[in-house]
Design a protein that fits this description.
This protein is α/β, with parallel strands linked by helices. The chain has helices at residues 27-31, 49-54, 57-69, 83-94, 108-125, 173-176, 181-198, 206-229, 234-248, 261-273, 277-292, 296-303, 317-335, 351-359, 365-376; strands spanning 5-6, 9-10, 20-23, 42-46, 70-74, 99-106, 130-135, 146-150, 156-160, 168-171. It has a 6-stranded parallel sheet with strand order 3-10-7-6-4-5. Strands 1-2 form a two-stranded antiparallel ribbon. Helix 7 (181-198) runs antiparallel to helix 8 (206-229). The two termini are 38 Å apart.
Length: 378
């Protein structure tokens, strides 16, 4: 994988298999059927129980598909995509050879589950499944080639392949408006986490990746507080959906391991302690930014973010990078998302275990810094 450099400026960007991204009211109604791969396609819906039982959204999609295209629905995908539920979904899909399309509806867990099902389909049948996704959170799982799930040990694991990226993304504010506000806002911080950590990611290209990330950061800082005050404002919802897309789509196929320390900490905290990934980003991102400010190369990139938080740069990269971390803290307070690990029943005796999972080590400078970071969030 070609790494990007800033001095001299050089790099590589590789596009994904995404064919279309629609946004705006009624995007699903307007565009879903026209983007099925064929007139005879059979589509299987992957979603969670809340959307299926507490809203009419799944029924709307089933009605749109009709008996001609609807092959079935699996509505039991839980948080972090537990392997037991995922295996059930795989079995439901693979027993019907006529299914050529998956439609994921929801946040990161249904979207990632659809990717894993497609991966298993390729293992079993030799073909990946066409994937249309209707995101209802701001997690941006629709932008990546990774399908994450939780194994039998409670650990987050994943599969990855360029063919797992959805072919069609439908951002529809009439679907997203059903998302509980705390989940919506916290996954917005997850998008912010993507955008911030891509600024110092080794294979992130200057264009379009970092330039899209800076745009995403600006939009998230502006519209998350506005959406908190006016949660049913469709323009605010749509702008945040586009910011979420911009936070991660720009990476393309330039993936080389986890995005950064905030993300690896999120994996160490998420599945094992049942913390939603939106909230893991709230817990880790500001502190990770301040930690990364000690690295001159990372600080140079993080300092670029400051004007997009509506502040002026001082010309001192390390200080400005620390101010970025502080700005994220202030945003969390504005959104009512500031939290501690004790809020999720994580205590002092878990620090070493979490630090080991996040750093893949049991000693050293980074391990010690992460121990201090986690302790500060108790």
């Amino acid at each position: 994988m070609t790494e990007s450099t800033d001095h001299p400026m050089s790099g590589l960007w590789q596009p994904t298999q995404l064919q279309a991204m629609y946004y705006g009211p009624s995007s699903v109604k307007k565009h879903l059927l026209s983007h099925l791969p064929s007139d005879s396609s059979k589509a299987f819906i992957i979603t969670g129980s809340s959307l299926a039982t507490k809203t009419s959204l799944i029924g709307q999609v089933e009605s749109l598909l009709g008996s001609k295209h609807h092959a079935g629905t699996f509505a039991s995908i839980g948080q972090h995509a537990p392997i037991t539920q995922l295996d059930e979904a795989v079995e439901s899909v693979l027993k019907d050879s006529s299914i050529d399309t998956l439609i994921s509806i929801g946040g990161g867990s249904p979207i990632d589950s659809a990717k894993v099902i497609s991966y298993r389909s390729h293992e079993e049948r030799g073909r990946y499944l066409y994937h249309i996704t209707i995101p209802t959170t701001l997690s941006a799982a629709e932008c990546t080639l990774i399908g994450g799930y939780t194994n039998e040990k409670g650990t987050k694991v994943s599969v990855a392949h360029p063919r797992l990226i959805p072919q069609v993304v439908l951002y529809d504010c009439s679907f997203a408006i059903e998302t509980p506000q705390k989940l919506w806002l916290s996954t917005g911080i997850r998008s912010l986490d993507h955008a911030v950590e891509l600024m110092y990611y080794p294979t992130a290209s200057e264009a379009p990746t970092k330039q899209l990330c800076l745009t995403a950061i600006s939009q998230l800082f502006e519209y998350l507080p506005k959406c908190k005050k006016e949660p049913e404002n469709e323009d605010y919802i749509t702008r945040l959906q586009l910011a979420s897309f911009a936070s991660l789509f720009g990476l393309g196929l330039n993936l080389k391991g986890p995005l950064g320390l905030s993300h690896t900490l999120g994996y160490a905290l998420g599945s094992p302690y049942n913390i939603p990934h939106g909230m893991t980003s709230c817990l880790t991102l500001p502190s990770v930014v301040r930690l990364k400010a000690d690295n001159p190369d990372a600080a140079e990139q993080l300092a670029r973010i400051l004007p997009f938080t509506d502040q002026q740069r001082s010309g001192h990269d390390q200080k400005d990078a620390i101010r970025v971390g502080d700005a994220i803290d202030d945003l969390l307070k504005t959104l009512g998302l500031d939290a501690t690990l004790k809020d999720f029943n994580v205590h002092e005796d878990q620090i070493a275990k979490i630090s080991k999972m996040a750093t893949n080590s049991e000693q050293g400078e980074l391990f010690d810094k992460v121990v201090s970071l986690i302790r500060s969030k108790l």
